[in-house]
Write a structure and sequence with these properties.
One of its GO terms (molecular function) is signaling receptor activity. Helices cover 73% and strands 1% of the residues. With 456 residues, the chain is mostly helical. The chain has one domain.
Length: 456
């Protein structure tokens, strides 16, 4: 009986193999975490959306954030805001007199116009980069899923809450700066002429006409453009800093797990594991962490793809702004800088310097955390372990030493500690040279005046 049942089962199995009908696939399909068209939502990016809920809501209201699968009418709003801000670059014509030789004077007012143009340009440029990443290349969605995978699976809730509070603090401070700028623009609607002149150049060159000083709709439109530009300016910076901070947080958790393996009195104290099974288990744990480290390093590459153009252009613009401001500030006197400009110029100088430091320091922290386990690996005593484990440790040391695990500017310049020193050295050297040259010119002028008075 049992033999007959076995033969029937074997015949049925053979018939199934020879049949042409497709068999239903009973194996569960694997979710493609890195699918380009997949969208960030609360089901598959739970912890990321929890951390970034308030920032993304604020950005969505202003038109800085959207999803690829949003309806068309929801995509029109952010696109329209960006197009209007680009069209408002008619203010560039306010430099017409200087470019075409009508004014040869490199005055404080001219520096002010150049700074306004550069500030608005970098703001709209960064917003456009974010829109392109979200809509065309889907790089933003892939980056969000990569970050969310490690936040969901490899980080504890207590530290995630601290990270969430820190990121919310970034955006609250950014919102306060945007509100401050918007309030100053609103004050210029009905304030004195010198305040209107300082905050009305966002629709230049029309602000120089007499009708612009009396037209309330014109002033309101100018205030709206100023408000959107201000919020776009700070929120694009906060969004970049938040992603850098999340990636740094992931590396900190990974480095903690790796140090626990390295410093468990097995790898660093010449104690051979007890038995072959412990040795295999140790090598398996090392392989698991090494693969995880490779996955996290891919996020650096994805983050660099999203922000390398934004970082590069921001560095160029903000360094230019700071150098122009230092040029003006080095010749400070009551005749050149007075009124509200005596407040705006120092404020912008400090502001530009802080933004430069934030962009560079947060990118440098990513690089430092990525190679943070190098010192611990160098302490490993590999003499008594298997050749396979020794080879893997040496290979990981070489990767950490010589691979490019850092954010870049335009994909060319790596941002690390040396780059910070380069930027600070450039700004300091420029300020010293300009200050000495202007000091020499002022002394020469004073000597000429004394000699002229003596001759008289």
């Amino acid at each position: 009986m049992i033999k007959k049942l076995f033969l029937n089962t074997k015949i049925n199995a053979t018939n199934d193999e020879l049949s042409d009908e497709p068999k239903p696939d009973k194996t569960p399909k694997k979710s493609k975490l890195l699918d380009k068209n997949i969208e960030a939502n609360y089901s598959n990016c739970r912890n990321y959306c929890s951390i970034m809920k308030f920032p993304l809501t604020m950005m969505r209201i202003l038109g800085l954030y959207h999803r690829k699968n949003d309806p068309f009418y929801l995509k029109i709003y952010p696109l329209s805001v960006i197009v209007i801000l680009w069209l408002s670059f008619a203010r560039t014509f306010s430099l017409y007199g200087f470019w075409y030789g009508k004014s040869d004077e490199f005055s404080v007012n001219l520096v002010y116009k150049i700074i306004i143009n550069l500030w608005c340009f970098i703001t709209v440029f960064n917003a456009t980069i974010i829109y392109i990443n979200q809509e065309i290349y889907s790089r933003e969605n892939q980056l969000i899923h990569d970050l969310s995978y490690f936040l969901d699976n490899h980080c504890d809730d207590k530290r995630r809450k601290r990270l969430r509070k820190k990121i919310i603090l970034f955006f609250i401070l950014g919102a306060l700066v945007g509100i401050l700028n918007s309030t100053a623009g609103a004050a210029s609607l009905f304030g004195p002429d010198f305040i209107f002149k300082a905050f009305s150049s966002f629709l230049a060159p029309f602000h120089e006409s007499q009708w612009a000083k009396e037209s309330i709709p014109y002033k309101i439109l100018n205030c709206i453009i100023l408000s959107y530009t201000s919020f776009f300016w700070v929120l694009t910076i906060d969004y970049y800093l938040s992603h850098c901070d999340i990636l740094t947080f992931i590396f900190e958790n990974f480095n903690k797990d790796f140090r626990e393996l390295i410093n468990n009195n097995i790898l660093v104290t010449n104690k051979r594991p007890n038995g072959d099974q412990s040795g295999y288990e140790l090598e398996e744990n090392f392989d698991s962490l090494r693969k995880k480290q490779l996955q996290i390093c891919k996020i650096i590459n994805q983050l660099d793809k999203c922000y390398k153009h934004s970082i590069g252009m921001s560095l160029i613009v903000y360094i230019t702004i700071v150098l122009l401001l230092l040029y003006v500030m080095s010749d400070w006197n009551g005749n050149c800088i007075n009124g509200i400009m005596s407040f705006l110029y120092p404020f912008w100088t400090i502001n530009g310097g802080i933004i430069l430091l934030l962009i560079v320091v947060f990118a440098t922290r990513v690089h430092e955390k990525a190679i943070g386990i190098l010192d611990d690996l160098l302490e490993v005593d590999i003499e008594e372990f298997t050749n396979s484990l020794c080879f893997k440790i040496n290979m990981m040391i070489n990767k950490l030493k010589y691979s490019e695990m850092s954010l870049t500017a335009f994909g060319i310049i790596e941002i690390d500690k040396q780059f910070i020193l380069t930027v600070l050295g450039t700004l300091l050297s420029y300020f010293i040279v300009i200050y000495e040259l202007k000091g020499g010119n002022s002394n020469t002028t004073a000597c000429d005046q004394n000699s002229n008075s003596t001759n008289f």
